[in-house]
């Protein structure tokens, strides 16, 4: 039977406990099997968003123009396709979807689309197709005609604000975000380099999926939809730039005060390949020095701090390279394992699917139709059936289907009072550092009550990245990364090594809808606090586990951090210059893992609405990283082409590069740059006029993108000479007024000054009892139903809400005081 005939609406009501106690039994067990999503999008962002929804069982109908999505003809290695042949990346992103091909000038086709929209639950929209670019199908017009729909609009700068119509690409938006000029991201002796692979497009697609899933519950409850505005610039600031705005508020200085640097030790070449290593500070640094045969470095105070160490890489790098070159990657990994130093092989599109750990975890699969290898789902909902995956649709294969068999969706059943879509949820956040906390903070900003659990024995490691020295008064409360990742949460300490601490945790779990943790897998098992134990306390609990590499396989217990995850997922292989070694993007894997885990959690909550059952969610960091770096594996498997490092060049624009301006950076260095990307013939002609070379517009050498790539060095020299005599503001003004994508590669501490972000109120001010007033970022999307403000509480001090939370689960003040005396709970790190 046609899948369209099987989709039935699900009537769900209730508010405070709707995500906990409103169920509809039956169905296949897929979270979104009764949801119909219309894709009015082209390219990666909308395609990846709806891929995540289709994998959860949603019926996704892709509405295309007569020629189909441009992505059908896309290949990063510039393959040419015969008529009717679809590119491999399209086949990956469009799996399990249906295709409806329409001519928007045809009244009958318009009527068919309108009939579908009347029966759909949601729309994912982005510009770039004949359908989406028709004013009749603009996001506001869609929502005005169909107010029951959740409309997710993906753009670069947003639907409103002063930059809404400015020309831009993912590359120029990355410059504006502050993500290019960032600590740990770039050799100061070379031009900065961006994070390649159109990473911003994958990230905004993931955020759009999160935004839609967060809205689905209240849309079903009320019969009222909402318009979601998801700008890429916000997602890139959130994932690439960190909390430098808040850091400057707290410290009075910028993290980049000493300039750009590369993370050390980073990536080095062994005798048989590249390997990434991460040792951080303290004991791991001492161990690293011993491992490479230079224990004297461990007593050199100028090398204690990772930032200072990065500035001295020229002094120690030759010895490290010599040591690495004498050993194989396996020999180095074995030694590093003895010292508990995090390592990972730097894989690429050819080697990634053959890693034994990925095979053991089923992290790659064969495409249903194309016969090539692609990443499997980035997360698993254990104990639930996998939603069936089918091949990508041929253009227009759903034409003629009777959408009338999809029942019209309910309208305006009940008005939900709260403007926060996750009101009523309680989340126990047992995560630390960045990936988990930034994800659960998104839930808190949308109304969930999130309890951030630490212990005085082992506080959240981000607290140790303090701007104050250990030993100074309340030093653990002066860490901007902790403050940025934990706003809106309640803070609690609990020593789980004690019987009393474990008992209290289980009592607390009874009151929580979900528990999120990112310990090494062995930790929860050693504490006997796995999913089966938590289910005894609360049968319908959802446990989200965020291990680095997964819950099984040879890398299961490897220490994992963002840089080594980036190595293992192939992101590092693509990053850097063609004449140099791979460079770690540094930090992308953390935030990417966090938002993917929250997508999984929201799916699990929606599934519980249907079944009444909890679920164990496995959301490994490396799985999320492999998903957004799918293209290199797909290109090699489908076409035999290995994608390589290319500096700041990219396959979607030519020229595309960073060019130095006459400005100085905040440290007085000549290190200010602009990003320019020419994506169309019209933009190329405009650039030729602006730089004083109008004759180049008709020159055969440069007329095609391929020709401009062949002659990139000559073009770059002329554009660079034109830029170096001008300020960034002059360049941006000249190019934007001529319709050319351009970005000022700002330092991340200046993100709060971006006019477009100010128009959206992206940063909100809060007072903290220790470090005072600061600017906190907000979720990277906006909704027509609110909230209009997000930040209610600054990050908690250590143990700040111990008494309130413990009273809430029935403990008396005397019992709480005894726990304090027994050091089960506390308010200062142990020994302080």
Please characterize this protein's 3D structure:
With 832 residues, this protein is of the alpha/beta class. Among the domains are: 263-376 and 555-608 and 622-647, formyl-coa transferase, domain 3; 653-753, formyl-coa transferase, domain 3 (2-Layer Sandwich), CATH 3.30.1540.10. The protein has 32 helices and 24 strands. The strands form six sheets. A seven-stranded mixed β-sheet has the order 3-2-1-4-5-6-24, sandwiched between helices. Helix 8 crosses helix 9, helix 16 crosses helix 23 and helix 21 (562-569) packs across helix 24. The N and C termini lie far apart (68 Å).
Helix content: 25-40%
The CATH fourth-level homologous superfamily of the domain at 263-376 and 555-608 and 622-647: formyl-coa transferase, domain 3
What Rg, in angstroms, do the CA atoms define? 26 Å
Extract low-pLDDT stretches.
1-26
- The average pLDDT value, as a whole number, equals 92
Using the coordinates above, name the CATH class of the domain at 263-376 and 555-608 and 622-647.
Alpha Beta
Secondary-structure arrangement, i.e. CATH architecture of the domain at 263-376 and 555-608 and 622-647: 2-Layer Sandwich
CATH fold title of the domain at 263-376 and 555-608 and 622-647: formyl-coa transferase, domain 3
Largest sheet: 7 strands, mixed
Taking the alpha carbons of the first and last residues, their distance comes to: 68 Å
Number of strands: 24
Shape: globular
Strand order of the largest sheet: 3-2-1-4-5-6-24
Strand fraction: 5-15%
The helix count comes to 32
């Amino acid at each position: 039977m046609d899948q369209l005939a099987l989709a039935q609406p699900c009537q769900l009501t209730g508010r405070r406990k709707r995500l906990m106690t409103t169920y509809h039994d039956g169905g296949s067990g897929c979270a979104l099997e009764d949801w119909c999503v219309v894709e009015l999008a082209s390219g990666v962002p909308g395609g990846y968003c709806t891929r995540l929804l289709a994998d959860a069982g949603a019926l996704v109908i892709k509405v295309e123009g007569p020629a189909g999505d441009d992505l059908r003809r896309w290949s990063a290695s510039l393959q040419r396709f015969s008529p009717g042949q679809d590119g491999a990346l399209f086949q990956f992103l469009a799996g399990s979807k249906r295709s409806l091909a329409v001519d928007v000038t045809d009244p009958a086709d318009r009527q068919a689309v309108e009939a579908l929209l009347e029966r759909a639950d949601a729309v994912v929209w982005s510009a770039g197709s004949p359908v989406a670019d028709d004013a009749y199908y603009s996001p506001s017009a869609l929502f005005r005609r169909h107010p029951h729909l959740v409309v997710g609009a993906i753009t670069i700068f947003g639907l409103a604000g002063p930059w809404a119509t400015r020309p831009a690409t993912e590359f120029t938006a990355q410059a504006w975000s502050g993500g290019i000029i960032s600590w740990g991201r770039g050799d100061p002796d070379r031009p900065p380099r961006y994070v390649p692979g159109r990473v911003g497009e994958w990230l905004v697609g993931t955020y759009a999926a999160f935004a839609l899933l967060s809205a689905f519950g209240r849309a079903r409850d009320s019969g009222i939809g909402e318009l979601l505005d998801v700008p890429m610039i916000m997602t890139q600031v959130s994932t690439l730039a960190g909390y430098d705005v808040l850091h400057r508020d707290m410290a009075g200085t910028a993290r980049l005060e000493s300039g750009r640097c590369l993370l050390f030790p980073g990536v080095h070449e062994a005798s048989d390949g590249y390997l990434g290593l991460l040792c951080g500070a303290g004991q791991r640094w001492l161990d690293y020095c011993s491992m490479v045969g230079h224990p004297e470095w461990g007593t050199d105070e100028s090398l204690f701090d990772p930032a200072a160490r990065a500035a001295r890489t020229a002094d120690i790098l030759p010895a490290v390279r010599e040591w690495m070159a004498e050993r194989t990657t396996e020999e180095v990994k074995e030694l590093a394992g003895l010292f508990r130093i995090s390592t990972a092989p730097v894989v690429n599109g050819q080697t990634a699917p053959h890693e034994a750990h990925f095979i053991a975890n089923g992290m790659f699969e064969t495409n249903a139709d194309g016969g090539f290898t692609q990443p499997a789902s980035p997360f698993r909902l254990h104990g639930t059936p996998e939603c069936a995956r089918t091949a990508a649709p041929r253009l227009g294969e759903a034409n003629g289907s009777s959408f009338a068999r999809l029942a019209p969706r309910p309208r305006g059943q009940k008005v939900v009072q709260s403007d926060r879509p996750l009101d009523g949820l309680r989340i126990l956040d047992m995560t630390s550092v960045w990936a988990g906390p930034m994800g659960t903070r998104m839930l808190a900003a949308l109304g969930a009550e999130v309890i951030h659990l630490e212990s005085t024995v082992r506080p959240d490691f981000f607290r140790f990245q303090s701007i104050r020295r250990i030993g100074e008064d309340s030093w653990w409360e002066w860490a901007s990364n902790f403050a940025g990742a934990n706003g809106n949460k309640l803070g609690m300490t609990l020593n789980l090594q004690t019987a009393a601490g474990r008992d209290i945790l289980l009592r607390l779990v009874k009151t929580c809808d979900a528990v999120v943790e990112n310990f090494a897998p062995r930790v929860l098992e050693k504490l006997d606090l796995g999913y089966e134990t938590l289910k005894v306390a609360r049968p319908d609990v959802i446990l989200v586990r965020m291990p680095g590499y997964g819950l099984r396989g040879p890398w299961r217990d490897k220490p994992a951090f963002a840089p080594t995850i980036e190595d293992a997922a192939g992101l590092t292989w693509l990053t850097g210059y063609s004449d140099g070694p791979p460079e770690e993007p540094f930090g992308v894997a953390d935030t990417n893992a966090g938002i993917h885990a929250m997508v999984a959690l929201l799916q699990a909550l929606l599934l519980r609405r249907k079944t009444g059952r909890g679920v164990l969610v496995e959301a490994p960091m490396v799985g999320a990283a492999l998903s957004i770096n799918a293209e290199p594996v797909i290109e090699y498997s489908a076409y035999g082409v290995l994608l390589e490092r290319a500096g700041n060049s990219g396959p979607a624009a030519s020229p595309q590069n960073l060019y130095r301006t006459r400005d100085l950076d905040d440290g007085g260095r000549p290190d200010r740059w602009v990003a320019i990307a020419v994506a169309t013939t019209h933009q190329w002609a405009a650039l030729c006029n602006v730089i004083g070379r109008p004759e180049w517009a008709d020159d055969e050498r440069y007329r095609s993108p391929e020709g401009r790539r062949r002659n990139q060095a000559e073009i770059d020299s002329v554009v660079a000479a034109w830029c170096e005599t001008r300020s960034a503001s002059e360049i941006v003004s000249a190019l934007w007024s001529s319709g050319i994508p351009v970005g000022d590669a700002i330092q991340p501490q200046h993100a709060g000054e971006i006019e477009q972000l100010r128009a959206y109120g992206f940063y909100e001010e809060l007072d903290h009892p220790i470090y005072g007033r600061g600017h906190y970022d907000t979720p990277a999307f906006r909704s027509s139903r609110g909230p209009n403000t997000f930040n209610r509480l600054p990050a908690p001090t250590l143990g700040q809400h111990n008494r309130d939370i413990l009273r809430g689960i029935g403990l008396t003040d005397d019992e709480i005081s005894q726990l304090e005396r027994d050091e089960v709970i506390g308010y200062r790190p142990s020994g302080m």
